[in-house]
Design brief:
mainly beta, two-stranded antiparallel ribbon, 1 helix, 3-stranded antiparallel sheet, about 20% strand
C-alpha cells in the first residue's frame, strides 16, 4: 500500500503509487510509528522543494530519519512529500 505522501497541484496529499521527480517538506506532519499523516497538513508555511537524489543519501519515507547523535528525543525529523514534476511542486505551494 502506498504512503500518503504524494502532493497534487492543489496541495492535497494523496496515497498513490506514482513516483515523483521532486521532494518537498512542510515540517513534521506524520507519525513515524504508524507512517500516517497527522491532522495538521503543514508545520512550516513555506514549501521546500528539491531533487530526490543527493550524494547517495537514503532516507526511510515517513520514518524517524534523525541521526543517532541528534538530541531530538526521537522526533521524526521531517515528512518527505513527493511531486510528479516541478510544475506541480510550484503550483501546490
Amino acid at each position: 500500500m502506498p504512503l500518503q505522501n504524494r502532493v497534487d497541484p492543489f496541495g492535497v496529499i494523496h496515497a498513490v503509487p506514482e513516483r515523483g521527480l521532486f521532494m518537498g517538506n512542510r515540517g513534521i506532519i506524520h507519525d513515524p510509528e504508524t507512517k500516517t499523516l497527522l491532522k495538521k497538513r503543514w508545520a512550516l508555511q513555506a514549501w521546500i522543494i528539491c531533487v530526490c537524489e543527493f550524494r547517495d543519501v537514503r532516507r526511510e519515507p515517513m520514518g524517524r530519519n534523525r541521526q543517532s547523535h541528534d538530541q531530538s528525543g526521537g522526533k521524526a525529523g521531517w515528512t518527505e512529500l513527493f511531486f510528479l514534476d516541478e510544475v506541480i511542486a510550484l503550483a501546490a505551494g
